Amino acid sequence: MKLRDQFRFVQQNMKKNKTRVFMTILATAMGCAFLIVLASVGFGLQKSVVKEMMEQRVVTQIDVHGKEVKEGGFRPINKKDIPTLEKIKDVKAVTRRIRLEQESNYKIGNYQGGQETFVTNFPAEIMAGFELSAGRLPKADNEVVVGYDFPLNLGTTDEVDDLYDNKGHVKKKYRYPETLIGKNLEMTVKQLKKGKIVEKKINVTVVGIGKKPTREWMQDNSVFISEKILKEIERFTGTPRGAMLSADEKLLENPDSYEGIYDEVKIYANNMEAVQGIVDQLKENKFENYSIVNELKQVNTMFTIAKAGLIFIGTIAILIASIGIYNTMTMAVTERAPDIGIMKAIGAHPKTIKRIFLLESSYIGLIGAVIGTVVSYGISYAVNFVIPLIIKQAFGEELPAGITFSDIPFILPVICFVICYFVTILSGYRPAQRAVRVDVLKAMRREV
């Protein structure tokens, strides 16, 4: 008997018992839908968590915190380390910043703002992706570049009750109204001397404004000054990085010990695939580092275990449905005993008879898997649409935009089909074996 004829024979037999076959397919479809929807929760939450992590940090960024020394401790990154870091394979740029250790006050006319101040290497910043929304890079020592949000937080010095808007910026009516490009700012730094606060004012010119951050929740209020201005501040404060002393602190005996040391060093890889290789090389060279890849590994491992558990629980539903397939196939063998007897009498091979019943059981399983997969996609869509509405109505809370409760990647239906096919074959194997052992004479008398 040809394979095509075997399929036709299976279809004819299934049509004879439509109700029973339909209920068996329905049970299988429900089991498959349960497996896919249950596991999709793990995939959906993983997708949301990973997306959130990747939005909060630059994926190709690696923070370098220090280098291990022979005594077992760590030292900060200094100028001598930069060439070593830049020579690592697939490194796009190495940015390094020195932070002014006090919040400086910047004033222009009747407007002021206190922001973080840095000294940076602009060629490295440009290679890493730093861009300007207006102006140019500094050329003179007294020229500075400010972050995109700096002008938005330059507010009036007058006392007002409600200065900031809901985005954390100074309200437009209280904000400096003109462009800052080419304008002079008065930078004020402080130090405690002989029990009194002493101030020093330094004039700087804004020549550039950074590009708007890619994420809405991010703010860039930084001010980038020259190394010469930092030296001037250090001479005034008598401390490295212009740190302001408290009443019980004393000036350091050797402030030059901080010379050539960076507060923030970041490596940017050419692409995400290169990050792990760079991290491995940093570890070999005893550099303490951190990248989002470290977190992603842990998160993915945790979710992989969770997804495996959910798939296992979903498989139980398919195993329960397989009982119905076993029952259907056992009854089919009993009802078709005369047909089996005739096939044996005309010389049908036992393997052919076994294959027919295995085809029927797998046919039922695969049809159920197809229906279950289609239904699960509908349920997944409904879950992502309905649950946020329920949470909003029940708890009065807005969920973050883009959160995914259920996600069905292509691999999940594939896993379901494989599990379903394997289970249905096992369910039909015993009845198929029984069909092979049917006695011809008893079958012709309708006795099994």
From TrEMBL:
Cell membrane found in the keyword field: yes
Taxonomy, superkingdom: Bacteria
GO molecular-function term, one example from the UniProt record: transmembrane transporter activity
Transmembrane region(s): 21-45, 305-326, 363-390, 410-429
Subcellular location: Cell membrane
GO cellular component terms given for this protein: plasma membrane
Matching InterPro entries: ABC3_permease_C, MacB_PCD, Macrolide_Exporter_MacB
Keywords, in A-Z order: Cell membrane, Membrane, Transmembrane, Transmembrane helix
Keyword Cell membrane among record annotations: yes
Membrane topology: Multi-pass membrane protein
Domain MacB-like periplasmic core, residue spans: 22-236
Chain ranges of the ABC3 transporter permease C-terminal domain: 311-430
Family that this chain belongs to: Belongs to the ABC-4 integral membrane protein family.
Name of this chain's protein: ABC transporter permease
Protein's organism: Neobacillus mesonae
